[in-house]
Amino acid sequence: MGAVTKTDLFVRLQEASRAAGLAITPDGSDAFRGQIDSIRAKWFLGAIKVRYTFSCRLDDSSHTVHFREAVKESAWGLPPPTFFTEKTSQRGAQVTISREQVSVGGGGRLEFGRLREALEKLTGDAGWKFQCEAVHTP
Description:
This protein is an alpha+beta fold. It contains two helices and eight strands; from the N terminus they run αβββββββαβ. Strands 1, 2, 3, 4, 5, 6, 7 and 8 form an eight-stranded mixed β-sheet that branches.
C-alpha cells in the first residue's frame, strides 16, 4: 500500500491536534501551528502560565513530517503558592514530561511529548517519515 497523500495526512494531523485540545493555526499550505495554555494560576499578587506550542510542516518531496515543540513558562508578580509533581524521561534527544500543578488560583496538567508520540504514530501509519527537530523551537 502506498503512502497517504499530503492533503489527507495534513487533515489527519490537524484533527488529532484539535482532539488533544490545542488551538490550531494554518501556516501556509503545508504547515500548521498549535498551542494550549496547559497550566494557569492567578491571584491578586501575580500569576503563572505554562504554554505548550508546536509546529508541523509536511514535505511532500521526501514524504517527511517535520515537527517542533516547546514549553514556555511565564510569571508576573508573586505567583500563587503552588504544589506540583513532575516526571521527566529522556530517550535520545526526545524528552517526555508529565507535570501536574495545583495552586490557590488554578493549576493544570502538562503532557509534553504525548502529542508528538500520537502524531509520530499517525505519520508512520500513513507511510511517511516523522522527524522531530529537537534543536529548533516552533
